[in-house]
Backbone:
């Protein structure tokens, strides 16, 4: 990469895991000239080969240790279940003064997995860029994925202020709106606005599929935009989502219980012909959704 | 309207209810030159005034009877709960040889409401163009709404073959793929691919809203595309949806029970750390969703 120096925040960045997020970060760094060199590592040889072919990283290494040992910033972009394994492998090979961050959709469990392996002189700043598509793999990334989206950082102990500022600048240069928050709050919020809707999408497709089999009638072909919209996320990476649910157990159970209670209540209103209650709820929900859209617009314009 | 005569299927069409569907049909008829005249009626004076101002109908009447008494095709585009009332008002004023159809998202209940009011010499052919957006009102319609979408007709007794063919041609001229099916099957299919997902969307917004109140933290502003996609339909017309749920009670309860069972099963897998089961289900669901997309593409290319 031949770049102007003004935006450069890190000399060398190592991206571990080259899927949608990893490849989007690499492209974003390149486009916005945020680092001098971008290194990569992926566990699977075919992913490394594909990423090399696509050429959006300066170098892709065959081992974790090679990828990280000269890096100033290491970004874990792997499914959250693999963090502990990765840290066991790399913790003895990290440069003094380097920063580790991650992009996992859960934060409490990730901190538990990573914290104990972080050596003295290295900062770990957990993060979560809330951005995604239903596509995965090294060919799915694009620099604009993060633009005007929120990134939540969850610093968990006495975090080096200068390092935190660098990470905030890093995501901001990628176009994100950055906020800091506690890991617990993060996990409950994400369970609500992301993990639950994903689980619901999987379950909508599965419910339809079961009925098709029962009735021996392939009727989902009649589905209009609505069904396809809500189930879009059911096409997301299965391993990543398995790990998210298993690592956000407590919050998922809390919010699932609340969601199932709500459904039972709605079922009861339908059963007892309580049209007033349904109408009131639908009006409130419509207002609420419009308010959410307004809040997002306001956030984006700030 | 000044139109060529080749596509004309009906002389005069009366559209009862001028919301998203009614206004889209009017515009589609105009664009595709399917009728010589389009008449309209809406219960609310401000809707009539707005539709007159927008000018996509030849005439908008202040009473139901005036709108229908000279029409060859009457299309009920009102919330399904109002059909019986409308039929009580108009059944003595229908022209011999005319056809009534509707666009309701439920068919068994609609047939029960309308059938008994249909006079001799008039055909009633229940229908459901499966197309929509989250917008409502006389200004929300557009001619392309129906393009490459499915329309299910549910003829319920000895239907006049010539009349059925005319209705099939009518929707085809608007761009739809038309299929006939039994009312019972229609209602269960729609409960699965449309009504349940809508109820789920309302409940997702409500669950998030309750948690925001409980935690006194406005966190839905962090929502990414996913949450906004699945909850898009929660902005739909509350009255229309109240009526749909109340009029598709049996199928809704059947499919809600199946959906809640699925969620309880998922919750159990999360609780017991059953990663294999989650991963298997997510992979199956991803494959299934891709198959649905393929079926839809195939249907559209036929």
Residues:
């Amino acid at each position: 990469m031949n770049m102007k120096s003004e935006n450069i925040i890190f000399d060398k960045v190592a991206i571990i895991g080259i899927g949608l997020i990893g490849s989007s970060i690499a492209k974003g760094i390149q486009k916005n000239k945020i680092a001098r060199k971008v290194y990569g590592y992926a566990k699977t040889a075919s992913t490394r080969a594909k990423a090399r072919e696509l050429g959006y990283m300066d170098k892709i290494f065959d081992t974790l240790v090679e990828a990280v040992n000269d890096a100033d910033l290491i970004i874990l972009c792997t499914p959250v279940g693999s963090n502990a394994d990765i840290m066991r492998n790399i913790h003895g090979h990290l440069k003094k003064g380097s920063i580790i961050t991650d992009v996992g959709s859960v934060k409490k469990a990730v901190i538990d997995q990573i914290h104990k392996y972080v050596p003295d002189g290295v900062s770990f700043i957990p993060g979560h860029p809330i951005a995604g598509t239903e596509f995965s793999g090294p060919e799915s990334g694009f620099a604009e994925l993060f633009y005007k989206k929120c990134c939540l950082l969850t610093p968990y102990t006495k975090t080096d202020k200068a390092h935190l500022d660098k990470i905030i600048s890093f995501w901001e240069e990628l176009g994100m709106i950055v906020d800091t928050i506690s890991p617990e709050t993060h996990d409950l919020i994400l369970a609500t606005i992301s993990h639950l809707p994903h689980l619901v999408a999987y379950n909508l497709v599965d419910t339809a599929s079961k009925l098709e089999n029962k009735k021996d009638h392939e009727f989902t072909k009649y589905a209009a935009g609505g069904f396809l919209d809500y189930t879009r996320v059911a096409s997301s990476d299965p391993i990543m989502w398995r790990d998210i649910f298993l690592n956000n157990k407590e919050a998922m159970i809390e919010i699932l219980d609340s969601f199932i209670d709500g459904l039972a209540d709605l079922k009861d209103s339908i059963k007892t012909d309580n049209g007033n209650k349904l109408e009131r709820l639908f009006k409130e929900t419509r207002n609420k959704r419009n308010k959410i859209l307004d809040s997002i617009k306001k956030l984006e314009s700030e």
